[in-house]
């Protein structure tokens, strides 16, 4: 292999690693608490009302929010999300919804201190 090909391969590997590091740097927490006062849908998943422990995981290049419902009905939901950069770190935690008829659809989450919006 020529030096040029080696340099190109090393550059690509470095860029991929840098992108993964940058994504991880945007999420500055190991877990967060989140309370849903009402049930909501994310895609085909129905999230019951309750208190959740939320973590962020990577599956290859996919971002996943893992939401575990606390209490005796402990359930875990794995929700793929797209991380949209924010101009600065969020000053508060926010839940964003839209409605389809009477159905409440969770379209995204933003956690205090994060530099991203987690869009579903």
Quick recap of the structure?
This protein has one helix spanning 3-26; strands spanning 32-36, 40-42, 45-47, 50-59, 62-69, 75-85, 94-100, 103-110, 116-119. With 120 residues, it is of the alpha+beta class.
Descriptive notes:
With 120 residues, the protein is an alpha+beta fold. The protein has one domain. Helix content is 20%, strand content 49%. It contains 1 helix and 9 strands, in the order H-E-E-E-E-E-E-E-E-E. The chain has one helix spanning 3-26; strands at 32-36, 40-42, 45-47, 50-59, 62-69, 75-85, 94-100, 103-110, 116-119. 11% of the residues are buried. Residues 13-24 have low confidence and may be disordered.
Characteristics:
single chain, 120 residues, seven-stranded antiparallel β-sheet, 49% strand, alpha+beta, 1 helix
As a percent range, the share of helical residues equals 10-25%
State the shape: globular
Mean pLDDT over all positions: 84
Query: Per DSSP, what share of the residues sits in E-state strands of 2 or more residues?
Result: over 45%
Sheet/helix structural class? alpha+beta
Output the helix-strand order. Answer: HEEEEEEEEE
Terminal-residue CA separation: 43 Å
Count the strands? 9
Number of domains: 1
Uncertain runs are 13-24
> Main β-sheet, in a few words?
7 strands, antiparallel
C-alpha-based Rg, rounded: 18 Å
Taking strands numbered 1, 2, ... along the chain, how are they ordered across the largest sheet? Answer: 1-4-5-6-9-8-7
Number of helices: 1
């Amino acid at each position: 292999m020529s030096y040029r090909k080696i340099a190109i391969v090393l550059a690509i590997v470095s860029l991929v690693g840098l992108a993964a590091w940058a994504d991880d740097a945007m999420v500055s927490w190991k877990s967060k608490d989140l309370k849903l006062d009402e049930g909501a849908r994310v895609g085909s998943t129905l999230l019951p009302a309750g208190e959740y422990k939320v973590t962020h995981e990577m599956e290859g290049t996919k971002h996943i929010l893992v939401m575990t419902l606390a209490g005796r009905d402990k359930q875990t939901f794995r929700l793929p999300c797209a991380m949209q950069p924010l101009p600065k770190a969020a000053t508060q935690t926010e839940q964003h919804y839209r409605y389809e008829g009477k159905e409440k659809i969770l379209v995204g989450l933003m956690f205090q201190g994060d530099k991203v919006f987690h869009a579903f």
